[in-house]
Amino acid sequence: MSVVGPDEDDDVARGKVPVPQDVQEAIRTLIRWAGDDPAREGLLDTPKRVARAWKEYCLGYGEDPASHLERQFEEVGGYDEIVLLKDIPFQSHCEHHMAPIIGKAAIAYLPRDKVVGISKLARVLHGFARRLQIQERLTAEVAKCIWDNLRPHGVAVVIEASHACMTARGVRTPGVGMVTSRMIGTFLDDERSRKEVLSLMGY
Ligand SMILES: Nc1nc2c(ncn2[C@@H]2O[C@H](COP(=O)(O)OP(=O)(O)OP(=O)(O)O)[C@@H](O)[C@H]2O)c(=O)[nH]1
Ligand SMILES: [Zn+2]
């Protein structure tokens, strides 16, 4: 699996990635299907822009999120309490409608003997979020990745998000938030630990 770094990220954002003709044609077909004329001036470059935007939304496919957890620190001065990163904003797209999912995540773990740089928890989240997702799987994948690679005593992930496929179309119900959680290890087995982590997360 190739690993996408910041350079490739920038290349996609700056429009340097070539867009194959069949991809452009697919987007022209979608514009026609939506009721507009892909040949009108304002829409001429839209197929390329849309294709590059989708490459950027889906950068996670070129990334192994576990690679962010490779550098681990053992000198933690005996710290063995919960480590929590909360209110991490993220964007994803639902696999049913390819519509935006916008929300925030709280990711916690109870270290066994090692910790990771705190930004890496957000990197793992974005690595899985930048794909076509459902919120349940995103939550489970983030938790499993930390559990498998850091081997902590426990992992807790709570995600709260709003789905554009519910607000902008379909049932058209704005203002609703979906909450999902995944607890592993101590946070699953021990009620007191679970309550403590949920309280630190603000739930
Ligand atoms: N469980 C879950 N459902 C999701 C997620 N994102 C979108 N959905 C739902 O996926 C469902 C797809 O339902 P379908 O009946 O196949 O599609 P649809 O006819 O477009 O459904 P409506 O959205 O009700 O119009 C919808 O109820 C969406 O609200 C998610 O992350 N998790
Ligand atoms: Zn959807």
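qc> The two ends are 37 Å apart (CA to CA).
qc> done
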